[in-house]
Amino acid sequence: MQSGRRSATIRVAGLCLALVGSSAAGIASAADFNLAVEPTHTPERAREVYQPLIEYLNATTGHNFKLVTARNYAFYWNDIRNRKDLHFVFDEAHFTDYRVQRFGYEPLAKSSVPSSYSLLTQDMVEEGEVDAFVARSLVTMPAPNLGFALLLEYFPNPMQQPDVRSMAASWRDSVEIVFAGEADAAMVPTWLAEQYPNLMPVVKTREFPGAAVSASQDVPADVKAAVRDALLKLHEDPNLYEVLNELGTPQFVETTAEEYRGSEAMLKNFYGYGRSSGQR
């Protein structure tokens, strides 16, 4: 009888140890990762916009994600070249390719909408007549944002430049500045421009592959796969509609590094492009 009780006790103890071990393994397998995003919002607003995405990735991958925001594009450009703890990033094409070529990042999924920018105004200006804005005020997000870089392509003559003002706190803020009469035109993403039919599009730029979520070469392959799968299914979650709406895309789709090859050339005229980087 005592032998039977001892045997039962041993089995129960063994089961408890197995459960504890399984729980510990689950805890040990959860890792912490940073996700950096372009500063197209203030840091406070970015946390509001991206928090549902962070919670979604935490729940679907079993890992812990932390949003990393930069104060502005000058700080963001510095982080791109110098920080090594940015495990995941959400970037436009020129930054995506730069990270691929310089630091071995891997694009996992991209916006299904190609990236282009439109110059909007309230003035009666003929389509394509960008010269009408020489010496006039234009607003956009700061360099080396893709919209800023594309705007410069329309004004190659240094003696015939607009007064480019980088005072907007977000893309939508750029449009509001035009409405307020504080600038004559705004360069904004085309997906946003289409939401303002009462403003006249003067030009629409050439297209680039949609903004992509990429992973650093330090991220394990199984974690990359989990994040990729989560992003490709993100549009199926109705709670994340507002996130996708803020990003200007209906969904994420598969992508490769090859799609972005050559896009980093948009950065060549900005300070720091040719410098070697010692990422930390």
Residue-averaged pLDDT, rounded? Answer: 90
Rg, Cα atoms, Å: 24 Å
Give a count of the beta strands, DSSP E runs of length 2 or more.
Answer: 11
CATH class of the largest domain: Alpha Beta
Distance between the termini: 65 Å
Helix tally equals 9
Proportion of residues in β-strands: 15-25%
CATH topology term of the largest domain:
D-Maltodextrin-Binding Protein, domain 2
Question: Which spans of ≥5 residues are poorly predicted at pLDDT below 50?
Answer: 1-28
CATH superfamily of the largest domain: Periplasmic binding protein-like II
Structural class: alpha/beta
What string gives the helices and strands in order? HEHEHEHEEEHEHEHEEHHE
The number of domains:
2
Largest sheet: 6 strands, mixed
How does the overall form come out from the CA principal axes? globular
Identify the CATH architecture of the largest domain. 3-Layer(aba) Sandwich
Strand order within the widest sheet? 2-1-3-10-4-11
Helix content: 25-40%
Subunit organisation of the chains: single chain
